[in-house]
Every structure is written in structure tokens, then in C-alpha cells.
Backbone:
């Protein structure tokens, strides 16, 4: 990251090669449309290039920072395009696995951990997380979409996050 | 709001599932509570890792080239004082509107992260200082504005071209220009009869805001085009226009 801050294009290339596929995959999953996903990826990496100081290393991994920005940007686009379409499932697209075997193995491991954690959630809690994170719905919108009381939605999300936290984070 | 109330909704905030008006009292509590701020950081880490649950797809190779080309262009354009300016249709008022839109987008991107917001603010202050200096360029006596007009009702972009023959540079500025199709870019051209010369390529920034400066020192000092136009070209630009003009402006003699 120091090299990115020094405006070294090779450093940006290295960050892209390391995280580009994960960032693209999330944007593609959230938006469905490959062209819009590409626009989001470009925005995210140019943001890093323009203002590397926005990434504060002490606050977490670069990957989670990039994923957070990607998710926020994609959800902003979904919200801008209207709520109705967000209920439609994003097309899966071509499932072409990344070619770098080391990277493939690493992401597979990380992905396995997250999927395993999600699998351990009761279905109703998993659905609440799915609607909030991947569809970008607020808890009120989830309540409207599912017909559940607002308090139930909040409780499901809170319980789900507590379990995910216990499974994914190493905390004292 | 106390810690108990905050813990009820911090996970919603981390997931982006809280309505904006509900976030205000929470933000006030977080400003004075280190424990809840730590808890929120953990929730955000969990939320971010959910993004790893999607199958990994290989992005198209052109995307890497596109990102790096755009980064290079910004790298080249950024440090030269006086070459990049903000203005808008009608001058400073529109420039202020464009700046406001820019800062709004920047703020929204960083909305859940106080540290990021502080860094944004610091950067925004430096941008304002930079642009206050650049605004002085508008006092250049020979600065000319050429309004540009969309050639289709679907395209509602408002663009203007400013140039100074004295300074040998010009810039295009405006709003509401959509991103070009994937693998393509916008290209600005000077036209003088059958003589069509490329000025440079550009892309809109966030929210369709355009601000891009062009070095005109390579054009002959006495040569003056009669019109300017914008076409959509393959990434990297073309030696000759391959698409029809989508935005044009005429230059008064």
C-alpha cells in the first residue's frame, strides 16, 4: 500500500491482481450485469489510487476494506435503479473460476469458512442476512417484503450476526 | 441512546440495513463510546467477509487494462497545476453545484466510517484549496466558452468546452454524461472542414461529472477549428472518428 501511495502503477497492478477477481465477483453477484460490475471495479481501484490514505491499515485488512466499498457502491446503484428490481435474483453469470491455483485455493478456503458459517444459521436468519447484505434491503424493507414484524426482522439479523461473529472473528 | 439500545442496531448499521434517520442518534452515541465503536468494527469485519461467499469469477482481461489506463491518465493529469479546472455551464455557480455533487458522492461512499470521513474531509479541503487557485484561471482574458449540444434526446448531458489560445490548453466540463459502453471511451475532436483532429479521450467521473483538461500545445499556433465534437471510440481512442458525433459545438469566428 505504501507503494500505491507513492503512485507506483506496478503497486496498483499488484493489488488488482491480488483482489480484482474477488471485488469483481462481488460486484457481479450484487449487480448481475457484467458491464456495471466492471464500472464498479474500476471506481473502487481508482478510488484506492486517488486516495490511498483512506485505507487505514490498523482498522482491518485491505480486502475487507475493498469488499465494503464494493458492496456499498453496488448497493447504492441498486437503490438508485429502484427497489422493485432488487427483489429479482441476480443472474449467476458464467462461473469461470480464476486461473491462479494459489489464489484459487486461498479464496476457496476463505469462501468455505464464510459459507460454512452461513450454513450453520437457521434458514430464517440466513434469509434475513441474504436480503440485507446481498439485496441491500433495510430492515424495514425486509419486514415489508416478508410480511414479518419489524422486531422479528431485527432480532433475526442480530442473532445471525452474533453467530457469524463467533464463527468468523477471533475475539477475546 | 445508551449502549443497550446501540447494540440492538449496530449489526444493522454494519450491514447497511439501517434507515439513515435511525443512524443519527447511533452516530452520536458512537462518538462517545469506545466499546460500541469496537463492537461495530467487528460487525463490519463480519459483514465485509460475507462478500467472500460469492463464487470467484475471473474478470475480463480488458478490465485490468482499463483500470490501469485510467489510473495512468489520472497520474499524468493530476500534478500539473493550471491544467485542470472546474467550471460549469454558466461558470462558477455550476462549478459549485458540480463540486457539491462530488463531495456528496464522496461523503456517501464513506458514510459508515468516521476515520474515512475525516480523511475525506482533509482531502476535500485540499481539493477546495486547489480549485480556488484554479478558479483564478477564469480571469484569463482570452478564455472562451463553447457550449456543446447533445445530438440525441436520450443523451441529456450538459457539456461546455473552455479554451485559451494564449495558454494553449482547454478543458471540457459538464454533468450528466453516462459512462461509455464497456471497452470504449469518449473522444474529443477538433473539426475544420475535412480536417478532423483528435484532442484526447475522457470519461465522466462519479455521477456523470466531466472535468478533463487537454494540452493543445501540439496544435499549430494559428490553426483554429470551426467545430468540436465528441464520439464514442474504442478504449484508448482512435486516430480518426469511427462513431457518429454525439455532442457537438461550433466555434464562432
Residues:
Amino acid at each position: 500500500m505504501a507503494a500505491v501511495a507513492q503512485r507506483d502503477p506496478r503497486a496498483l497492478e499488484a493489488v488488482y491482481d491480488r483482489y480484482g477477481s474477488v471485488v469483481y465477483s462481488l460486484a457481479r453477484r450484487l449487480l448481475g450485469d457484467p458491464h456495471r460490475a466492471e464500472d464498479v471495479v474500476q471506481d473502487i481501484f481508482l478510488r484506492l489510487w486517488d486516495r490511498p490514505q483512506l485505507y487505514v491499515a490498523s482498522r482491518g485488512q485491505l480486502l475487507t476494506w475493498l469488499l465494503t466499498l464494493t458492496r456499498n457502491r453496488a448497493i447504492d446503484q441498486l437503490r438508485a435503479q429502484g427497489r422493485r428490481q432488487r427483489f429479482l435474483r441476480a443472474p449467476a453469470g458464467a462461473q469461470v473460476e480464476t486461473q491462479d491455483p494459489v489464489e484459487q485455493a486461498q479464496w476457496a478456503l476463505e469462501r468455505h469458512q464464510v459459507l460454512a458459517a452461513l450454513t450453520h444459521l437457521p434458514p430464517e436468519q440466513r434469509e434475513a442476512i441474504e436480503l440485507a447484505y446481498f439485496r441491500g434491503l433495510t430492515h424495514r424493507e425486509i419486514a415489508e417484503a416478508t410480511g414479518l414484524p419489524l422486531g422479528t426482522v431485527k432480532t433475526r439479523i442480530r442473532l445471525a450476526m452474533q453467530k457469524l461473529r463467533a464463527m468468523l472473528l477471533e475475539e477475546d | 441512546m445508551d449502549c443497550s439500545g446501540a447494540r440492538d442496531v449496530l449489526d444493522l448499521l454494519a450491514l447497511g440495513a439501517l434507515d439513515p434517520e435511525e443512524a443519527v442518534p447511533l452516530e452520536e452515541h458512537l462518538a462517545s463510546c469506545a466499546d460500541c465503536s469496537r463492537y461495530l468494527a467487528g460487525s463490519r469485519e463480519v459483514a465485509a467477509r460475507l462478500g467472500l461467499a460469492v463464487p470467484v469469477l475471473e474478470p475480463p482481461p480488458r478490465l485490468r487494462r482499463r483500470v490501469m489506463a485510467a489510473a495512468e491518465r489520472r497520474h499524468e493529469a493530476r500534478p500539473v497545476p493550471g491544467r485542470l479546472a472546474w467550471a460549469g455551464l454558466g461558470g462558477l455557480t455550476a462549478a459549485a453545484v458540480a463540486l457539491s455533487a462530488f463531495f456528496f458522492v464522496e461523503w456517501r461512499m464513506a458514510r459508515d466510517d468516521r476515520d474515512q470521513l475525516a480523511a475525506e474531509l482533509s482531502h476535500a479541503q485540499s481539493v477546495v484549496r486547489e480549485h480556488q487557485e484554479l478558479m483564478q484561471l477564469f480571469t484569463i482574458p482570452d478564455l472562451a466558452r463553447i457550449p456543446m449540444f447533445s445530438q440525441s434526446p436520450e443523451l441529456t448531458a450538459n457539456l461546455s468546452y473552455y479554451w485559451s489560445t494564449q495558454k494553449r490548453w482547454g478543458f471540457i466540463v459538464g454533468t450528466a454524461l453516462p459512462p461509455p459502453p464497456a471497452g470504449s471511451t469518449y473522444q474529443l475532436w477538433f473539426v475544420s472542414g475535412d480536417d478532423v483532429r483528435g484532442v484526447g479521450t475522457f470519461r465522466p467521473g462519479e455521477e456523470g461529472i466531466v472535468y478533463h483538461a487537454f494540452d493543445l500545445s501540439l496544435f499549430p499556433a494559428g490553426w483554429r477549428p470551426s467545430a468540436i465534437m465528441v464520439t464514442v471510440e474504442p478504449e484508448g481512442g482512435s486516430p480518426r472518428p469511427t462513431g457518429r458525433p454525439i455532442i457537438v459545438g461550433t466555434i464562432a469566428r
Q: What stands out?
A: The first helix of chain A runs from residue 2 to 5. Helices of chain A lie at 2-5, 9-31, 34-50, 62-81, 101-119, 123-134, 139-146, 150-168.
